Amino acid sequence: MQPQFYMYCYPWDLEDEGLEESIGRLAGEIGVDGINVAATTSEVLHYRPRKPLEKRVFKTEAGAHFQPDKKFYSSCRIKPHPAAWMKSRNALERIVKVCEKEKLKVRASINCCVGRALVERYPFAACVNALGVISERVLCPTHPDVREFLAAMVEDLSTNYGLEALEIRELRWEDVTDHNENEVCRPPWLPVAADLLSHCFCSSCRQAVSAQSVGGDAVLQAATARLEEWLDHSGTENTKDRSTLLYDPDVLEYSMSMRGFVLELVSELKQRAKCELAVRYSARVFPADADFIQEHLMERIDAVVVSSRMLGDGATESTLDSHVSLIPSKLDVIKSVEQTDTSTMQALVASTLALAERGYRSISFSDYGRAHQHTLDAIRQAIRFARRETR
Ligand SMILES: [Zn+2]
Asked: Which of 102, 204, 219, 232 is least surrounded by Cβ atoms within 10 Å, i.e. has the fewest?
């Protein structure tokens, strides 16, 4: 099978370079089969490495980079909000038009739950941790209004833009890495404390879990007690002993139920999608276990999107050791331009060919706006070489 190559693109990078110019270049000079454009994102502060982009810095709040079609959201309490940088244009629509002309396939990605501006508008659906801290950055995917909003957005995007596929990202709860570490005062982390604080205990989560298995309120009490124990004793006792004491089997069962809610939501989104649906693998929600991904995630959707690092590509170690059991034709693999093997043309050409030979559904480079000119040149060579060698 001939490999398919894609480039991840942020709409503002394409717009600022000129759509005809940037998309023409991707199709002609670089030679990808398609692009994957961000339809919604969290907040972004982008220092741009490449000319001719005049503005060396781009900044946006979390938002939608398309104009929502109102009819899909009439019964929704949460709606997508167009980002200010677009003014009143529809960036996605403009990009799709030029891609049609250039015969490029278009995939789009949705950032589901993360963004300060989104949570500011809809605080009632925010994640809440075990010590009652309401998230300022992450909406809870268990909340019925969040689920309805995501389903409507999937239907809107997959109906209106002739997309080949939609990619779902950041379908998750808040975890401790969402907090700005410069603003947080706390004792040293124990991994188990960080894990406990990365569970959502909003009323939607507790109710949903109680309806299924363990009592959500009881688990919250247990989690709170263990966190208090961490705060009481941090730094005073043997950390290792304390770690095992803090583990709670009910919290583990709670996590399993929560994971089940995300999987159910993935199925709901797949039903609403009028194009292919892919899900970006996240170690925050799913175990790094090939059997789990194959049995529980792949069967619900058209593809799972993973970083090539997770498949043991390049210098880094694989975290999906048994990747051989994953179905390559249902995997979209991303090579980040920041990976060490993209720093020289030779290394990128070799690692791209290695991926192409494994028969993945597609290989994507991430991303256009962060790549230096020499990286784009290397990507062009890598694609040509891989096509020729796998013919
Ligand atoms: Zn929740």
From this structure: 232
Question: 135 alpha carbon to ligand 1 midpoint, in Å?
Answer: 10
Please choose, from the candidates 18, 231, 234, 268, the residue with its C-alpha nearest in 3D space to the C-alpha of residue 142. Answer: 268
Single pTM value for the model: 0.94
Domain range summary for the chain, segments of one domain joined by +: 5-124+136-173+258-389
Q: What is the mean pLDDT of residues 25-47?
A: 97
Q: Give me ligand 1 centre to Cα 217, in Å.
A: 13
C-alpha separations of 164 from 5, 35, 89, 104, 158 in Å: 14, 10, 22, 10, 8
Ligand 1 centre from 355 Cα, in Å? Answer: 38
pLDDT in tens, 278-337: 999 988 888 888 888 989 999 999 999 998 888 866 545 556 654 556 888 999 999 988
**125 CA distance to ligand 1 centroid (A)?**
8
d(CA 326, CA 313): 15
Q: Hey, what CATH class is 5-124+136-173+258-389 in?
A: alpha beta
CA of 10 to the centre of ligand 1 (A): 29
Q: What stretch of H or E contains 207?
A: helix 203-212
Report how far apart, in Å, the C-alpha atoms of 383 and of each of 3, 4, 236, 319, 387 are: 9, 9, 56, 26, 6
Ligand 1 centre to CA of 259 (Å) is 12
CA 214 to ligand 1 center in whole angstroms: 15
What pLDDT is recorded for position 242?
Answer: 62
